[in-house]
Amino acid sequence: MAIHPLTRRQLVIAGTSALVAAPFPAMSAAKPRVGLVQSTHAKLSRRAGPNQELDYPQVREMVWKAIEYGRPAAGSLEAKIKPGSWVVIKPNLVFLMSQSGYRTGDTTDLRVIRAVLEYVAEKSKAARITIAEGGSYRRIKDPINDNVVTQNGVRRDAYNFDWGGKEFPGAGGSIADMLKEFSAKHPSKKFDYVDLCYDCVRDPSGKPTQIEVPKLNGTGSYSNVSRYFITNTIRDCDFLITVPVAKVHENCGITACFKSYVGTAPRVMYAVPGQFWNSVLHSRHSVDTRIDSFIADLAAFHPPDYNVVDAIRGLQTTEHNNNQQDQMLRHNIVLAGEDTVAVDAAVATLLGFRPGDIDFLHMGAARGLGTFDLSQADIAGDELDRFAHTWKKPRTWYARGNREWRVSRDP
């Protein structure tokens, strides 16, 4: 009798016992591919220097070329997305431009988000395409008035915040405008936005409920507390594309695909009065003050089906605005690939880190989500080593270090 592997959605719904019992398909012998394209790439129709400003057509071509180079095992991104699927695009929009923690390079470039949205809309047979994020700002209809963002005296959130034409030239004013435009172009598809801050999974009575981390590849939770509040959208979607920005981070080294999962935890369950960030998530699920454990755990509820990383501009020294003139770095690069661990390992290398020093990459590899040994991956497009730079690292971050100790008279 043929055995049919469960989908990720079925795995989560079935629970941990089913996860342990379910057979996992054999790993492909083919090396995972990571596409890397800089604005200088020889096959681009319009090339630009690594420090030059880009317009939307240039960014779009870079994103699409990176996706082409970083094609998944199915042969292409559109081939991997099944007809009728619900596709979720998860960027990193932790702050909006008017907030003090924001500076250019802190969030995913809207042009990269738009290019991914356009690719999925035009090339795949998805039925619903959603942009979903949970940032440190309250939605318009939230009755609580702290951590509210206003623009020209009007309350805004990520959906209708107008970025203007200077920060992301050619992206359009807001996500709302972008989704309206694509809805008109593709009337057979549904386009929408979900604020993950409020999208908590609830039990049949309507009470928010915590869910045990699924075991993947025999590996369960890395946190001392193994149950989490999670979001319906991330759990239930058919296909998840992470679209983070590449930058450093004080508690885990780098921000990219895995770190983006902090935005999938519902802030209404993890914030404290007067604040609107996941402070309880950090205090409850961190291990030795490090967040590697819970970003790896959150990714287990629905690992990325594909990844596109914005490395056009990013932040060194720390992950949010520190008011230092040299914090933002521009390199005009986009990466893409199916293997989430390999993509994050490429980002780590690009930023001057050693992938083996980063804890959450070991955790992701143990779950069977990929490899951080880039000798076992194909970097297609531009050469990674040519663009690797030493970014200023956060003072509070330290490398993974040696986890094996030998006791002897002469160690």
Order of helices and strands: HHEHHEHEEEHEEEHEEEHHHEEHHEH
* Overall form: globular
Classify the helix fraction into a percent range.
25-40%
Low-confidence stretches: 1-28
Strand content bin:
15-25%
Describe the overall structure:
It is a single chain. The protein has 411 residues and is of the alpha/beta class. The chain contains 13 helices and 14 strands. The chain has helices at 8-14, 16-21, 56-69, 77-80, 110-123, 175-185, 232-236, 267-270, 279-285, 292-301, 340-350, 359-366, 384-387; strands at 33-38, 86-91, 128-133, 149-151, 154-156, 190-195, 211-212, 227-228, 239-243, 247-249, 253-255, 306-315, 328-337, 378-381. A hairpin with a 2-residue loop joins strand 4 (149-151) and strand 5.
Index terms:
single chain; two-stranded antiparallel ribbon; 14 strands; disordered N terminus
Note the topology.
Layout: H1 8-14, H2 16-21, E1 33-38, H3 56-69, H4 77-80, E2 86-91, H5 110-123, E3 128-133, E4 149-151, E5 154-156, H6 175-185, E6 190-195, E7 211-212, E8 227-228, H7 232-236, E9 239-243, E10 247-249, E11 253-255, H8 267-270, H9 279-285, H10 292-301, E12 306-315, E13 328-337, H11 340-350, H12 359-366, E14 378-381, H13 384-387
Parallel strand pairs: 1-14, 2-3, 2-9, 3-6, 9-12
Antiparallel strand pairs: 1-13, 4-5, 7-8, 10-11, 12-13
Brief description of this entry?
By secondary structure, this protein is of the alpha/beta class. It has 13 helices and 14 strands.
